[in-house]
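Researcher: Sequence recovery benchmark, item below. Answer with residues only.
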């Protein structure tokens, strides 16, 4: 013995034997829904059966109907639902009571090569490899039978005796359909489907078994096979290995692991596997799976240090630029000699239709599905697939492009953007010939010279507001000149001798009309003239009019939501306007400033949440308002919460709990805190944020 082993002496040597008598026959049963102290050893087993190939086992055990924990009424009701009133041999419960239950198995693991049952006896350890490890769980197939019985009874009641009056020799029309030959791709999907696997499992017959209790003589006899029958070591050569072979058995090489790995879907690829591919294949695989992606996100998915110029070369081979973002090419998704899984349309036709949808998104933010389908004339399922790949549905607005316009990429890579624009010009010419349309059919005359990358909705709104403000200023100057001229013609003195002064306050940026779509344009609501404005509120320092209807809307909204950013209030107001009957004109001309002032005069306050400098939230999203006073004692808790969020935009629950306890003492309980957080906050990653300040 080496001197280094003196501190770790060998205490005992144990001989290990490999028992092979029960190989391919020994299973380990686990009962995960039953505590270990409550075994089924003393429970009467009524039956057992197995499907060896699938390692599927079912055990039928009796239930103690005399136990004080057994509900006799429930047991009788279940038996009645399953078997009905009839007394037949095929009934599940022959005693008219649920007196048994079935356990069905699932495989705990598909690889049992490292598991064995061990018996230690007289200084010897005997190991028997396990054929399977099965978890036994209660089966509820009797509920399916009860549901089937219920449907059969309903069908019988509806049918009545009408079937007896029908002639047996009625002539019925038969429709004969011929299916197209199944492609290899469709066959692979079919054999991997749940329905196909269920059918294959049902084809294997059950093998019925006889159960022997743990203390039965047959069980004692079978347990003897857990010991190695041939104790002569010369015959047991399985464990006589060299140190290197033994180490290899303990830690097999990775190549052996590939055999036992479950087969996953063909389109699943880990990031570690992805980065072993060439750069071009990495980009193609990512775009094929994601379909729409900004260039910055693509660089973030690739390995650090990847050359962006090389990525640009690769991305242009598999994707096209749409609104500054990259969308995978149609021929990558639909290769030649393939067809639609929905309709069987050839890949060439699918590519033309999808290219049309992509081209439309280069000039518009939203598309109407019916308009697209009317031009490309493809089945609705295929059209929906095209739209779902690159857009999202919006209420009453059609399908909007998935991502905002990436102007940063266009400014940073103008040569790529110009090259893509020229490429789209060529694609447009081909599409015009195929679908017989003109670009003028979709773009207004003033937009014919628009830039190759389309502006987002917010950018178009800002441009429209600036245009409206400019026109308003011109009209106001003309009105001032007209009034001044009229005052000079009528004299410089009014009826009472006082001087008449015509003065118009300049319109500030915040006075621009709110983005309410077609509902608010030029002082009109829903296309009808606005009602006359009521008398201005003396408390409003901006000269704006508070309509009672607008105040009621704001109060009701904040009593329901408690915390809202300005953009969300505007969205809710638009929805409210859209729900009004045609011709309703109670709100008049509502601007952003009017809406903010109405909020502040409706017992609400602006919560100055300190957004992080890198926050991408728009200006309207950073204007957060909360209900300050509602006339109840709970207002104090809400006010303390708002004060906490004026110092940090995210807070932990214990900080809120501590501050409330300091301010209000022990009067604050867990229920109050839960209500407060539910009304005003949202939880993300263990932190709490005010509603409207983050997007979950």
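Model:
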């Amino acid at each position: 013995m080496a001197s280094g082993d003196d501190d770790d002496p060998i205490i005992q040597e144990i001989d290990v034997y490999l028992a092979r008598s029960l190989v391919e026959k020994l299973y380990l049963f686990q009962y995960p829904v039953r505590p270990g102290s409550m075994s089924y050893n003393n429970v009467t087993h009524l039956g057992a059966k197995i499907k060896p190939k699938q390692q599927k086992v079912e055990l039928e055990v009796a239930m103690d109907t005399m136990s004080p924990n057994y509900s006799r009424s429930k047991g009788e009701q279940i038996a009645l639902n399953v078997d009905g009133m009839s007394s037949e041999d095929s009934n599940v419960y022959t005693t008219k009571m649920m007196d048994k239950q079935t356990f069905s198995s699932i495989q705990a693991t598909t690889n049992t090569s490292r598991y064995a049952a061990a018996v230690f006896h007289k200084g010897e350890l005997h190991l028997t490899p396990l054929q399977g490890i099965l978890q036994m769980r209660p089966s509820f197939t009797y509920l399916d039978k009860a549901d089937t019985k219920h449907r059969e009874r309903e069908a019988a009641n509806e049918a009545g005796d009408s079937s007896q009056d029908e002639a047996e020799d009625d002539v019925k029309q038969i429709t004969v359909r011929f299916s197209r030959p199944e492609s290899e791709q469709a066959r692979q999907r079919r054999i991997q489907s749940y329905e196909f696997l269920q059918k294959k499992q049902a084809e294997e017959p059950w093998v019925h078994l006889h159960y022997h209790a743990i203390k039965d003589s047959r069980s004692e006899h079978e347990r003897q096979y857990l010991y190695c029958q041939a104790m002569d070591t010369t015959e047991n050569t399985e464990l006589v290995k060299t140190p290197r072979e033994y180490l290899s058995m303990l830690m097999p090489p990775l190549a052996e692991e590939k055999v036992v790995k479950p087969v996953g879907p063909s389109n699943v690829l880990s990031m570690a596997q992805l980065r072993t591919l060439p750069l071009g294949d990495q980009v193609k695989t990512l775009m094929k799976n994601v379909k729409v992606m900004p260039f910055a996100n693509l660089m973030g998915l690739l390995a650090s240090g990847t050359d962006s110029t090389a990525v640009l070369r690769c991305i242009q081979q598999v994707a096209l630029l749409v609104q500054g973002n990259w969308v995978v090419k149609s021929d990558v998704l639909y290769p030649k000699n393939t067809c639609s899984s929905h309709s069987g349309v050839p890949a060439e036709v699918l590519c033309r239709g999808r290219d049309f949808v992509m081209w439309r998104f280069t000039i518009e933010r939203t598309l109407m599905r019916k308009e697209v389908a009317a031009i490309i004339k493809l089945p609705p399922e295929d059209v929906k697939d095209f739209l779902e790949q690159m857009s999202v549905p919006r209420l009453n607005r059609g399908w909007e492009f998935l991502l905002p316009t990436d102007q940063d990429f266009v400014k940073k890579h103008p040569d790529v953007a110009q090259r893509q624009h020229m490429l789209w010009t060529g694609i447009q010419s081909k599409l015009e010939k195929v679908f017989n349309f003109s670009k003028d059919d979709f773009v207004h005359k003033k937009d014919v010279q628009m830039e190759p990358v389309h502006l987002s909705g917010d950018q178009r709104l800002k441009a429209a507001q600036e245009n409206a403000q400019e026109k308003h200023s011109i009209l106001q100057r003309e009105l001032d000149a007209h009034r001044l001229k009229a005052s000079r013609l009528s004299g410089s003195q009014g009826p009472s001798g006082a001087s008449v002064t015509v003065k118009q306050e300049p319109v500030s940026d915040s006075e621009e009309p709110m983005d309410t779509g077609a509902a608010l344009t030029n002082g009109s609501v829903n296309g009808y003239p606005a009602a006359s404005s009521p008398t201005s509120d003396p408390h409003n320092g901006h000269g704006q009019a508070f309509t009672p209807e607008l105040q009621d809307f704001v109060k009701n909204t904040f009593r329901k939501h408690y915390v809202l950013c300005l953009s969300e209030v505007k969205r809710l107001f638009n929805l409210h306007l859209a729900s009004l009957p045609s011709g309703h004109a109670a709100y008049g001309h509502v601007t952003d400033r009017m809406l903010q002032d109405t909020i502040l005069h409706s017992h609400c306050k602006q919560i100055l949440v300190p957004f992080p400098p890198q926050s991408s939230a728009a200006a309207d999203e950073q204007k957060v308002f909360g209900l300050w006073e509602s006339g109840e004692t709970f207002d104090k808790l809400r006010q303390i919460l708002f004060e906490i969020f004026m110092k940090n935009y995210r807070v932990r629950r214990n900080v809120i709990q501590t501050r409330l306890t300091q301010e209000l003492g022990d009067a604050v309980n867990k229920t109050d805190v839960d209500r407060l957080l539910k009304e005003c906050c949202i939880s993300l990653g263990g932190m709490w944020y005010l509603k409207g300040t983050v997007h979950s």
